[in-house]
Amino acid sequence: MIKNIAPKALSNNELMLLIPATIDIEELSKSATSTNPEIDFNKLLSLISLITTKLNSYNYKKERHETFKKANIHSNELKKCCGNKYSDYVDFLFDSNILSTRSPYSKEVKGQTFGYGFKNSHAFRRLKLIKLTNSKSVFYKNKYSDSYVKKYEEILYRLFDRTKFSLDFNLAEEKLFYKYLENVVFPFDSDFTDEWVRYSAYHGGLKQLVKFLNGQYSFTRETKHSKRKPSGRFYSSLTFLNKATRSLLYYEGKKLQQLDVKNMFPYLLSQYLKETAIILDSHRVKRLQSCTAFKAKYKLSNTPYISKKFFSSQWLEQYLIEKYGTLLLPKSILVAKNGGLVQQDVDKNFFLDIPKSLFQDSDSHFQHSNKKFYSPFLHHPQRGNWNQSPNKTAQRIWKPKSKLETQIGTYTNSYSQTKGKYDNSHLATLYSGNYNGSNILVKSNQNPMEYSNYISTKIIETLMNKEISKFNTLSVEGIIYDHFIRLFKAKFTLIEWGMHYQRLFNDDYKCLYEQDRELAKKLFISMLYARNNHYLEEQEVFKSEFPILYDLIREKKKGDHKIITDELFDLEAEIIVDTVARDLIKKKIPTFTIHDCIAVQEENTEVSELKMKNTFISRFGSCPQIKWE
What we know:
- The protein has 629 residues and is α+β, with helices and mostly antiparallel strands.
- Helices cover 44% and strands 13% of the residues.
């Protein structure tokens, strides 16, 4: 078995440069020596590398790297690179057909600088990394977002030492090239084409790698006005490395392994909703009642909402019947009135047979609060016609014996002589009558009765908890993004879906499941990050699956669409940065954070994974899927 040999790290006297692979270094060295012996070839290469890196920048708004034909470079940077005679180096590169003509310069325009770019034979071409040895040590000062980061986050950034990081830089360039440019034919038109976007990603990945290997580190963590100590995600130069190159890193000669938490953001969102969801008010009840997605999800009737305070009776009855049990309404009865028998409908009295899982105790909350109503059935095992009243002045309701026995015998809240208790618990018991002794006298011609908001709220609270539980389960099992693949794809044609993937990831879409999952993840997280009026189709999909959670999230984001993501980033950092990473570093285990992941040496993978699992279980009582990359 061949032993894995770690690449050698750069020394303090060495630097990594990035130049076009089309430049022949040996020929350039001979030409420089013969043309102008005063030209320092190392400085000349450093100038070419400076121009190469300056041509690429990161567009934070579009979240992508962009490479341009020309770059503005201030004279101070040129002096720092080549000395006061930097113009000799620039002129030589012009004469050697390496640099193109500089951008027009006007003395009338204050502050304007020269624009530098390569000839077509070297522009937008494959790049290469070369190691340069200097006579003196080279150091770059760390950059911090503010003084608080420098003060409080030393335990995290003091591990960054360029003489301890290493990787096979030729292999790194090769991986980036085949990731983005494998099928690109050179030269290509650079005016905002797909090839230009891919080349920019390739170029940007190498630029970030060169800066990292040379020790040009920056560290950022937000310091809120209410707190002096930074919180939230910790950003470092390692964070911005391309995944393809980051996976090749060694630290102190030992391979770094990345411990990744699957579905971290939705998992934390499910925990966040558990802790922040409040009892539903009448406004949310009304919104859900009129929400088509909510009614379609739970197969509710389309009866309009008739009151700000109460659900319509038809809607509630339909919901209870279809979702939670059998609704039994008393049949029409005959009432003695004006010397005759009159048929009367009793359509507002119902009892519900519901699953035990909703209310485990057979004596429900409503029974305890209405003991007078239930007492006749609890204390009189020999039941007669319960529609009769002992009050001599009261009307007597007559029913045929067979119908009466059938009705009483099938009542779901009837008393069981065998068990000595009620057979079923009750979600609710509503009645429209006056209590009189031990019986109920049903009155006719009463005003329609509306169902209480308390009952409807409890129903929706149950559904809300069910949605949170389902969302949490999908997140813990690591399949929440998989759950939305088919639903998101249905919103696009196959061509649109593939083009969407290529635009976001700068890679050819090959109809692979991994690509579908990656795009579904991107759309899902972007939807949660964005304002309520963005990603509308994705929101419709989410609403169809989790209508109550959709309403909770949407209302929370009103006025500040970043409020949820900011709180989740704080929660994520509390776990990954302030608990897992700090504790491992204190145990002399070099640990680097990358958003919701950590990177540790191979020999420390088991103890690091155990620490992460215990942290999640201690905090939330569960642990999401964790994998090594």
